[in-house]
Amino acid sequence: MRQKRRNYTPLLVFLFLVSLLIWQLPTLLRAIPSRYLQRGPSFLQTIARGEQNPLLPTAAAPQNAAALLLPTITPFPTHTFTPTPTPFILTTGEPPATPTPIPTNTPAPTPTATPIPIQGQARLEGFIHQFQDWNNCGPATLAMTLSYYGLRLNQTETAAFLKPSIEDRNVTPAEMAAYVNSQTQFQAIDRANGDLDTLRRLLDHGFPVIVEIGLDPPGEYAWMEWYGHYLLVVAYDDAQGQIWTYDSWFGTSEVPGENKHPFGRIVTYENLDSYWSQFNRNYIALYRPEEETILQTIIGPNMDDEVMWHNALAHSQQEAAAQPENGFYWFNLGTAYVNLGQYSLAADAYDQARSLGLPWRMLWYQFGPYEAYYQVGRYEDMITLANATLNVYEYFEETLYYRGLAHLALGNVAAAQRDLSKAAAFNPNFTPAIEALARLN
Question: In a structure prediction context, what are the per-residue pLDDT tens digits for the chain, which is 441 residues long?
């Protein structure tokens, strides 16, 4: 009796389709907006991301790294910033409705003659906490900060200006200050090379402050790896050596998503400086227009960009000399050199930072290496870094812009136009890409 032949065609077709699905799974997952994908299991996000190198592409350490720590540029400016004297008093944190005068026979202090004393503790009241939506740390933190002044904004309203694309991964301090200055009746200033003394004095006088920090996600979130983050500082206490923050992700606890402590999430001075230094100690201070002189007095000479970056350079040199294996300090050194127009030295400092290893998300937030390499003609290095940053998602208008400039410098006009067009479409408020595209066209 003849045995019936089995038909394996359906099984083969099934196996082929499963293999095709597995092969195309990363591409399919990348097509899902990450704000939805992030709600799924971590292994799916890992598949979508692929074999992501935990570090930025490295570079050979420059032979003259030690020379970067020497005073090789224009000496520190001799001029100092002196605001118009205005009487002021120390407060407990709550800003007065109008400036409170002091007797006319009492001389107003100046930043050089009489440093403003620090109270030892202060707390600002009246903030309304908001948990951030997906990649909405900046807009949520800014909305929380503005609630101090009675503005009941939600993060959707601030995000509409700050990041027209919901997938935008980063909002810079300059963009956040620009929102306050152009969209509200209040004012804001963003500065680098902050310190704890300035932070405490600002809180003493009722100025809310946002700081930009690095973040290593805790516990079950550790797989996400290093991120940039914003914190709204609402209080400090020298005796306890800590600040309190309103955190758009952690809430007011050590566990993301919890509002456990009404006074805010506690961060020690030591931890603050460790993670704040990863972003050149950037900060944003908000104020009423009539309070500008007091704020200028507190910030002092660092109100002047040139003085600020000379101070940042000296500070970064000291830290890199003390901890030469810390790549963040060398990166900060490069950023100071870029802002002082010393691009060759900046490129060497960034090379040293990359030789030590930097988190793969580093250029989501800071773009100095692109500018330094562009100015010294290292266009291929720009493209290498941009490709690594845009490996999974092209959600960074600054990176697209700089890659477009590099392509253009290399004569790849079509590639340049493509990148610049993507940058301008992704964020219509990003004028560098719009202007570069107009020039190209």
Answer: 555 566 667 666 666 666 655 655 555 544 444 444 454 555 555 555 555 567 899 999 999 899 999 875 554 443 333 333 322 222 233 333 333 332 333 333 334 446 789 999 999 999 999 999 988 999 999 999 999 999 999 999 999 999 999 999 999 999 999 999 999 999 999 999 999 999 999 999 999 999 999 999 988 888 889 999 999 999 999 999 999 999 999 998 888 887 777 889 999 999 999 999 999 999 999 999 999 999 999 999 999 999 999 999 999 999 999 999 999 999 999 999 999 999 999 999 999 999 999 999 999 999 999 999 999 999 999 999 999 999 878 899 999 999 999 999 999 999 999 999 999 999 999 999 999 999 998
pTM for the predicted model, two decimal places: 0.82
Provide the total of helices (H) and of strands (E) in the chain, helices listed first.
17, 7
- Structural domains in the chain? 10-49 (no CATH), 121-303 (3.90.70.10)
- 8-38 core/surface letters (b: 16 or more CB in 10 A; e: else): eeeeeeeeeeeeeeeeeebeebbeeebeebe
